[in-house]
Recover the amino acids of this structure.
């Protein structure tokens, strides 16, 4: 079984008007993604931002839960938050994975839009079950990953379609549903 | 196909030490649940709290998105937030459903713990596909639904088990995963 890593990108992502921006860290994104990752056995979740003050903020939040009083009161939360790792950019996340596993990760982008030739969640699950190499699932904050990210990935995963074509799920929900579809017990 | 409604209970729920409390409204819970409900075609999501000031807070947040500037800027968010309805208690939620559908809803409790005789998500999905009556899925904030809630429900759904027995998912993630398992396209 392959290892599936996660990365939450705050840059390069789109804003509401379609411009590429660096979005702000959201405390609850970090908590929710960490808890979902811990639940589904994801070995690490990279928090990607090039902004030094945002990196410092994320690290401060994490320290509260890993070394501070937060983790003493709620050890389960500490266990989850320990999976987070703040990195400068996507390359740094990939390098971390190479350091951990000795292999270059397969990059999967996610999107809320229909993309031609997208990989189904079923197909992605099959690959994870068959292959013996790391995969890195990329999630975008704001209005999603910027086009340049799609240029460097190995595949784009199909969007989570609900029942009526509404495509405005929170990244926190999309991440948890995808982890359940790709790694959940069947 | 049955209609599945959702209710997020802020009372009666447990706190960390096992006492029954009324928990505080969390802005992001309302947004995330509304967006997940809209995605999966849930007709209404009840925000249950007996505290008047918390009801007022929830209604104020909702008004911003339904009638205020929020909804003008983000119409998809308005569509989701419109599914929320603040109610005093579980009975009021059930009465609202009776008013809407003419039938008493089947009550399903959720828990992060293993419960004897729990209904599997597969089994719950089958029931939704077969029955022609409303169902109401109860989610607890804080440390989960208080015991008295389990006494009045028709079934308890199995917990979402990840891969290693870690049972500390955010209610936002648990809700989205459950909606995907119960209502998602197969």
């Amino acid at each position: 079984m392959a290892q599936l890593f996660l990365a939450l990108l705050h840059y390069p992502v789109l804003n509401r008007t379609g411009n590429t921006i660096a979005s702000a860290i959201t405390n609850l994104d970090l908590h929710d993604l960490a808890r979902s990752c811990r639940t589904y056995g994801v070995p690490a979740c990279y928090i990607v931002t090039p902004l030094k003050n945002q990196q410092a903020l994320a690290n401060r939040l994490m320290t509260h839960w890993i070394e501070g009083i937060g983790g003493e009161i709620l050890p389960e939360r500490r266990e989850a938050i320990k999976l987070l790792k703040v990195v400068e950019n996507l390359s740094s996340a990939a390098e971390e994975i190479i350091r951990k596993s000795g292999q270059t990760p397969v990059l999967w982008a996610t999107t809320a839009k229909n993309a031609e030739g997208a990989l189904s969640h079923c197909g992605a699950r099959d690959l994870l079950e068959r292959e013996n190499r790391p995969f890195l699932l990329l999630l975008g904050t704001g209005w999603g990953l910027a086009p340049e990210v799609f240029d460097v990935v190995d595949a784009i995963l199909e969007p989570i379609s609900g029942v009526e074509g509404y495509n405005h799920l929170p990244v926190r929900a999309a991440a948890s549903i995808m982890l359940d579809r790709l790694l959940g017990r069947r």
